[in-house]
Structure formats: C-alpha cells, structure tokens
Write a structure and sequence with these properties.
Structural class: alpha/beta
Low-confidence stretches: 157-167
Number of helices: 8
Order of helices and strands: HHHHHHEEEEEEHEH
Mean pLDDT: 75
Largest sheet: 5 strands, mixed
Strand content: 5-15%
Length: 225
C-alpha cells in the first residue's frame, strides 16, 4: 500500500514538472547549464591559482589589490544598477514611464537628452512642461508633450522665443513626445513640417532603454551630429 502511494506521488510530481517545463517556469535542465557551470569552476580555480602564485612571487600586496579592485567593481556595478542611479543616467523601464506624470516625464526626457549629449536649456515657468536643448553644433531642439492642455499640432503656431532682446528664435528640430499612439492627422502634420519628429510610446520606451535619439528610426530619429 505504501509502495503504491509512493509511486503515485512520483507520477504526480513528474506531471507537475512536465507542466512547469511546458510553461517555461521550471528552470533549465542540468545539461543546459553544465557547460556554464564547468566554465565558472575553471575560471574560479584559475583565479585562485593566479592569486596564490602572485602571493608567492610578490607577497600579499598584489592579491590584496586585486581583491580590493574586484570588490570595488562589484559594489560600483550594484550601485549603478539601482533604480535611482539608473534613472539619473537617463535610463527608465517601460513600467517607470507609465507611472510618471507630465512634469516627471519632462524630467525623464531631459535626462535622456543629456545622456545623448544635448545641453538642456532652462525655460521660463510659462513655457513648461516643454523642454529646449542644444547639441554640439548649436542646433536648437524643442520638446512638447502630448496629451497636455495645448492646441492640436496643426492648430498651434510655431514655438519661438526671444533671446537676450534680439529677434525670435525658431527651433531647428522639434520633438513631440506621447506615451500613447499618435493619430493619423498628427503623422500627416509632422510630415508636412519636415523638422518635427514624433516619439510615440514604443519609440519612447526604446529611447528610455538606452537607444540614442538619432537611432530611433527614419520616421522619428533626429539626425545625429
């Protein structure tokens, strides 16, 4: 009786494992990770042997310096991967983008522009949440955000401002950032303008993930320096 119950439990366990593997939730088999494990053991052994030889030849200073460098590198990588440090470097996950309000999204885009080499310019309060930035060639880029309380693109006059009392300055390039999908009329309007680039939700996620602005694609990518 006990033997039959044990056999039944083994059958149920195999069925459960098979279902988890079919869903991709059970994890890799040993033969799938065996090469990586062997390589890891070999590298670890080589490192220990190298430190031992260095200790015998040079004394404790060199192994201590190597270990200190490894620890410092590991701590640095861990700190850089923290969400706050990552976002300050202009890297956001799609979930983080969804949670941002318009001012938070403007801050994220400003960080992404700095990451790509643009110099973000201060704007008066009445011009926010828009952004303005210049690249190394002096080109002026203006960023608007949708949806916000502003007219539709084809109803809105060209953005311009006065610089130090001189004439109006017209941007060389313009971005319109939207976490959703642009309407067909917006796409047609941007195509007529020529210098306007639409950044929808998919392109914004790629940009926030580390893709440079000028590599987002022919339809949205800003020309690179």
């Amino acid at each position: 009786m006990a033997e039959a119950g044990e056999r039944s439990r083994r059958v149920l366990r195999r069925q459960a494992v098979s279902e988890l593997r079919a869903r991709g939730r059970y994890g890799p088999r040993l033969r799938e990770v065996l090469f990586a494990l062997v390589l890891l053991v070999l590298l670890g052994s080589a490192g220990v042997v190298g430190l031992a030889l260095a200790f015998r030849v040079y004394g404790p200073a060199v192994p201590a310096a190597v270990l200190a460098a490894l620890v410092t590198g590991a701590v640095t990588v861990r700190l850089l991967r923290r969400p706050l440090a990552r976002r300050r470097r202009g890297l956001y996950t799609p979930d983080e983008l969804v949670e941002l309000d318009v001012p938070g999204l403007a801050l994220a885009v400003a960080r992404m522009l700095r990451r790509d080499g643009w110099r973000v310019l201060p704007l008066p309060e009445q011009d926010r949440p828009r952004l303005a930035a210049r690249d190394a060639q002096g080109r002026l880029l203006v960023v608007a955000f949708r949806p916000v309380a502003e007219p539709l693109p084809d109803e809105e006059p060209a953005w311009r401002r006065r610089a130090r009392g001189h004439g109006p300055v017209v941007p060389d390039l313009r971005l319109v950032v939207h976490r959703g999908t642009f309407a067909e009329r917006d796409v047609r309007w941007a195509a007529r303008q020529g210098h306007v680039h639409l950044i929808d939700g998919a392109r914004l996620a790629r940009w926030a993930g580390g893709t440079p602005l000028h590599r987002l694609g022919d339809e949205a990518g800003v020309p690179g320096p």
